[in-house]
Amino acid sequence: MTVKVGIDKIGFYTPNLYLDMVDLAHARGADPAKYQVGIGQSKQAVIPPTQDVVTMAANAAAQILTPTIKTQIAMVLFGTESGIDNSKATAVYLAHLLELSPQTRAVELKQACYGATAGLQLAADYVRVHPQAKVLVIGADIARYGLRTAGEVTQGGGAVAMLVAANPQILELEATSSYHTADVMDFWRPTYRTEALVDGKYSTNVYLDFFAAVWADYQRQTKLTIADFAAFTFHLPFTKMGRKGLRQILPTATPEHQAQLTAAFEASQADNRDVGNLYTGSLYLSFLSLLRHGHLQAGQRIGFFSYGSGAEGEFFSGLIQPNYRQGFDDAGLTDLLANRRAVSVAEYEQLYNQQLSSDGQDMQLAVGQEQAPYYLAGRQHEQRVYRRQ
């Protein structure tokens, strides 16, 4: 008998600060509609120096882990393009912070915004062979393009934590997927830079081309069509990009089904619109937003388009499970997003420039106002110092 494998629990964390896109537009001399409608963003998370991808991942994972679950975790697969060390994996730091067993495999995965999807697929394959085990999959990033750059409006940050297990509560992953890789220079971040380089229009075109390619190949493999899907979720570096992807395939659906898919997309982009770009976590925040704001029923098929610049794309699918709402803390997530504090453009710029320096000097961060359970206290002897409240 084939074991059902998929996403059992999902958590999300972003810091308690955000920048309103209307304020940014006014400061940059732009029409707010350019950001709110043309890009499709309302707010973006602002990441204080006391949070990095490790602490945000820990804060997301803490929402879904219990002492019992911790003993069952066999692997931590951490997708990020915002790693803190060129050698030591973020997954190792995370496993230590979460006090997981030393008998845990911990690996960091990197391919732009695709890393968490690689982790999810590797995790599912592992659990199919080891159905008693659970795998913690992370997608955590800080999207930085630089102040007063064209990409500034598509910044953001946060972490999504997913528990992959047999007989999952939220989503059963279907075995078939389609993937496509090409050496494309649409977005890259050389080792000497903290901000990304991007050809925005070209990257959008590559994204759409990759979606068309993997969707066609998925249909060829499975013989499924758009009629077999209740919703599609997309990697959303900004919400308008996913909307363009959906519009590529909507004409193949009936008018009634087009309305259903459009409504599902609106639900899936709601939280991304208020957080901004998560890179590796973007697709999975979109899925979580669909779970929270959509109207789903058990057995419905959801399509996922994952894209990582450089470039790699994948389309896969999963089936909603009857008790999916028990796999995440809806009220807690609503409070997390609702209780954030708006910062001025001046404060945002100050925080942007307060990240740990690259010279390796000892540094003590101001942690007195930190509210998150896990945080970065500073650096000593060229080692990051993590703390738990």
Automatic annotation (TrEMBL):
The Hydroxymethylglutaryl-coenzyme A synthase C-terminal domain, residue ranges: 177-253, 268-352
Nucleotide-binding keyword on record: no
EC supergroup of this enzyme: transferase
Sequence positions that bind (3S)-3-hydroxy-3-methylglutaryl-CoA: D31, Y145, K244, N277
Active site per UniProt: E81, C113, H235
Keyword Transferase: yes
Keywords: Acyltransferase, Transferase
EC number(s) per entry: 2.3.3.10
Domain Hydroxymethylglutaryl-coenzyme A synthase N-terminal: 4-167
Coiled-coil stretches: none
GO biological process: acetyl-CoA metabolic process
PANTHER family per record: 3-HYDROXY-3-METHYLGLUTARYL COENZYME A SYNTHASE, HYDROXYMETHYLGLUTARYL-COA SYNTHASE
Designated name of the protein: Hydroxymethylglutaryl-CoA synthase
The organism of origin for this protein: Levilactobacillus brevis (strain ATCC 367 / BCRC 12310 / CIP 105137 / JCM 1170 / LMG 11437 / NCIMB 947 / NCTC 947) (Lactobacillus brevis)
